[in-house]
Amino acid sequence: xxxxxxxxxxxxxxxxxxxxxxxxxxxxxxxxxxxxxxxxxxxxxxxxxxxxxxxxxxxxxxxxxxxxxxxxxxxxxxxxxxxxxxxxxxxxxxxxxxxxxxxxxxxxxxxxxxxxxxxxxxxxxxxxxxxxxxxxxxxxxxxxxxxxxxxxxxxxxxxxxxxxxxxxxxxxxxxxxxxxxxxxxxxxxxxxxxxxxxxxxxxxxxxxxxxxxxxxxxxxxxxxxxxxxxxxxxxxxxxxxxxxxxxxxxxxxxxxxxxxxxxxxxxxxxxxxxxxxxxxxxxxxxxxxxxxxxxxxxxxxxxxxxxxxxxxxxxxxxxxxxxxxxxxxxxxxxxxxxxxxxxxxxxxxxxxxxxxxxxxxxxxxxxxxxxxxxxxxxxxxxxxxxxxxxxxxxxxxxxxxxxxxxxxxxxxxxxxxxxxxxxxxxxxxxxxxxxxxxxxxxxxxxxxxxxxxxxxxxxxxxxxxxxxxxxxxxxxxxxxxxxxxxxxxxxxxxxxxxxxxxxxxxxxxxx
Length: 511
What we know:
Blueprint: H1 10-37, H2 42-51, H3 64-76, H4 80-105, H5 108-119, H6 122-127, H7 134-153, H8 158-172, H9 181-191, H10 202-212, H11 215-223, H12 228-234, H13 244-261, H14 264-279, H15 286-308, H16 317-332, H17 341-366, H18 382-394, E1 402-407, H19 410-419, E2 426-429, H20 438-441, E3 452-458, H21 468-473, E4 474-487, E5 490-502
Parallel strand pairs: 1-2, 1-3
Antiparallel strand pairs: 3-5, 4-5
Helix pairs in contact: 1-4, 1-5, 1-17, 2-3, 2-19, 3-4, 4-5, 4-7, 5-16, 7-8, 8-10, 9-15, 13-14, 13-15, 14-16, 14-17, 15-16, 18-19
GO molecular function: pentosyltransferase activity
InterPro entries: LipidA_mod_glycosyltrf_83, RgtA/B/C-like
Subcellular location: Cell membrane
C-alpha cells in the first residue's frame, strides 16, 4: 500500500497519543459524574452477582464477565466506581489496539482517522461507561485480528501463534461470537494467494484447536445443566410473523439503530467502502483484503439476518471494528479508492456533534435535577432502595437466620444484592417454575428450610398474599412495610414482607 511521507509521519501517531490522553482524562471526569448520578445498569449488577460465585459458565454467557466482575469487586471492595473504571480501561485499551492494527495495515494518518471515527460514536461512548459482556469480547477480537496479522507476517514465530492461541481462548470464554474467529482465519488463508501457505502451517491449526478447546469446560457445564445456555441462545433467533408494514418497520429499525450508534455519515461511509471493496476485490492489496474479509462477510450475514428478525445492535459489533479501518481508507482515498474529503468532513462533524450532545446531556442530567426523568429511571433509585431494604433486614427478629428474596425481574435481585450495604445473597422466585435466569440455576430457598425470609415485591399493587405457593411455604407471612423512592414522575416501590419459618420449597430444575 503506497504511503507518502506526510501520511506516514510520526506526527500523526503523536497526535493519536495526545488525543487519547485528552479523551481519557475527559472520560474519567464524565465517569465520576456518572457514578455520582447513576446506579449500575441491571445487567452490570447481574454480572456482578455472577462474580461472587465463579463458575465455568452461567445461564446466558460464558464465564469471563463473571470472573472479571469477581476480580473487580475483590480489588475495589465492590464499589461502583471500580466497575465503571474497568469499562473505561477496557475501552481505552481496545482503541489503542485498533489504532495499532490500522497503523500496521495502512499508514499513520489513516490510523489516526480510524481512531477518531471510533471515538466519535455513541457506541464507543457507551462502551467506556457501561461494563457489558461486549467489552472483553471486543478487546479479545481486536487483539486477535492484530495477532493473526502479525503471525501471518512471520508464520514461523511460535510466540505470535501462542499469543493468538491465548486470545482465542479468552475470547471464547467471553462470548460465543468468538467461535467465528477461526473461520475468519481459514477464510483469509483461502482467499489471499500470498497466505495460502498458512493452511499448511500446523501452528495455525494448533492455535485454532487449542484456543477453541477453552469451550470444553463450558460445554461440560452446559451438559450438566440441561444445555441451558444453548436453549437461551436459540431464542435470540426466534422471528415474529409480521405483515409487510411490520416487517419494513422492524428492518428499518435494525438499520436505523446501527446508523445511530455508529453515527449516520460514518455508517454510510462504511457501507460505501464495503460495496467498493467488493467491486474492486481484484485490485485490493493484501492488507485491504484482510480488512475486507474481517468486516464484509460478517456484516453481510447480519444484514440478511436483519431481514428476518430483530437484531440487537451489539451483535455485529466485532465486524464493525475492521469496518472503521475500511471506512478511513475509503474516505482518504488510499489506492485503489478515490478520496472523499467531503464525506470525511461531514463524518467527523456529525459524529463529533452527536458525541458532544451525548456527553453534554450526561453532564447536564447528572449534575441537575433532570436526573430524575423517566427515561433514566432504570439507572436511579437502587442505591436508596437498597439502603431502605437493609434497614428492614436489620430490624428482623433473627437477622442471622433470615435470607433475602426479590420477586419479578432478575434485575431486582441483582440490584438489591449490590446496593444493600451488607451485599446479602439474594434469591429470586420464578413463578413459571422454569429456568429464566442464573438465579434459578443456583440453589434456591430450598437450601434455607427453617429460615425466615425478607421478601421484596415490586410494584404498587402487591399480590404475594394471593399466592398459595408462598402462603403454604411459610408458617406465616407478615407485611412489614414498603419502600418508596421518588424518581421524577415515577416512583420505585417495593412491598416488604417477612416470611416466618420456611417449611418447604420446590426447587427449579433445568429441563
